[in-house]
Design goal:
This protein is α+β, with helices and mostly antiparallel strands. It has 3 helices and 5 strands. The chain has a 5-stranded mixed sheet.
Amino acid sequence: MPRIKVTDQDGTTRELTADTGDNLMEVLRGEGYDNIIALCGGCCACATCQVYVDEAWFAKLPAIAEDEEEMLDSSDTRQPNSRLSCQLDLDETMDGLELTIARLAE
């Protein structure tokens, strides 16, 4: 069961557990992170499920696909360590993953 350390926009950090194969966006929404809006329902078409992955973890994740790259490029809040949570299915190699919920553009 992968453990995920999540920091919200207020700076509060919680550790979550998920099942292998769970989608990160769905886990975050299920835990009540309201800033993971996911307007497109996880189809990589809106960038409203953006997270900032801890730099120590960023290179360990699967590569960013072209469609995710395009969505991130359209975001006003993109950072070098941004990922769309809808594009990350959790597995045992992600145990201990640390991330921060991205702020939405105002």
